[in-house]
Structure formats: structure tokens, C-alpha cells
Amino acid sequence: GQLVSHDFTIAAVRAKLNDFDPLTGEKLDYIELAARLETDIRDRFEDEDFEIHITGFAKMIGDIADEAKSVLVFFGLAFLLTTAAVYVYARSWVLTFLAVFCSLVSVVWQFGLLIVLDIGL
């Protein structure tokens, strides 16, 4: 079958998400939903006999939010390596600062436009 395997050892449960909370009418908080999936579904039903796999957009957003500190560390390391590479190429701190500063300004503008246009990553 489509949702249950032929030997009845695996089952799939699908749920379609709305972009808004049906109880409050507010925009759906994917980070909270991902945490609730872990506590309400995985912790409740997973044991040595049953293994739960959760996939989808809400789970992905939750995982990214959980690893936000690692993302910031990665950004800092990438920024330092990029600055060092530009300095090795330009051999001038002024040119290095200008290039890196202009790049950062463009990134800030892009993130700002994403918010203004209501486009999510």
C-alpha cells in the first residue's frame, strides 16, 4: 500500500500544515511546532519497538533553530577566512575593509528585502 508496507512493519503518517494556527489565526510558529513534534510525538510513541522519523519543513526549521549557535560560529569563521583571503590578495587593510564592508552591506540589504517582501528562507 501507499501508507503501510506490504509486510505491515512500516507505516507513514502524513499531515498537511497550514501557514496559520487554526486556533488563534496567527502565523504558524515552526520552531514551536518542531519542539512539540519532538515532545508530543517522538517522546510519547518512540520506544525500543517503534522508531519515529519526522521529516518536513517544520522539522527542518526546528533543526536549524537548534543549531543557530553553530551557524553563528560558522559565519564568524567564514568571515575571518574571507577577510584573510582578501588581505592576502590585496595586501592592504583599507582595500580589505572596503571589500568586506561592501559585501556585508549587500547581505544586510538582501535580508532586509526578504523581510520587506515577506519571503522566507
Can you give a write-up of this model?
The protein folds into two domains: 66 residues, no CATH class; 54 residues, no CATH class. It is elongated and about 65 Å long. The mean pLDDT is 90. The chain contains four helices and no strands. It is an all-alpha fold and 121 residues long. Helix content is 60%, strand content 0%.
**Domain tally:** 2
Q: How many helical elements? A: 4
Instruction: Report the sheet-strand fraction.
Output: under 5%
Q: What do the pLDDT scores average to?
A: 90
Sheet having the most strands: none
Q: Could you give the count of β-strands?
A: 0
Please provide the ordered H/E string of secondary-structure elements: HHHH
User: How would you sum up the global shape?
Assistant: elongated
**Category from helices, strands and their pairing:** mainly alpha
The end-to-end distance, rounded to whole angstroms, is: 35 Å
Helical residue percent?
55-70%
Question: What ranges have pLDDT less than 50 throughout 5 or more consecutive residues?
Answer: none
| Rg from alpha-carbon coordinates | 22 Å
